[in-house]
Amino acid sequence: MSQMFHLIRHAQASFGAEDYDNLSEVGHMQSAALGAALKHQGLRPDALFIGAQKRHRQTWEGIESALGTGLVPVVLPGWNEFDFGGLLEARYASRSDKPADLHTARKTHFRILRDTVLEWQRDEIEAPPESFTAFTDRVREAREIVAGSGAKTPLAISSGGAIGHTVSDVLNAPAEQMILLQLQIKNCAVTRLVMAKGNVWLNGFNETPYIDDSNADALLTYS
Question: In three state form, how does the secondary structure of 62-88 look?
Answer without folding.
Answer: HHHHHHCCCCCCEECHHHCCCCHHHHH
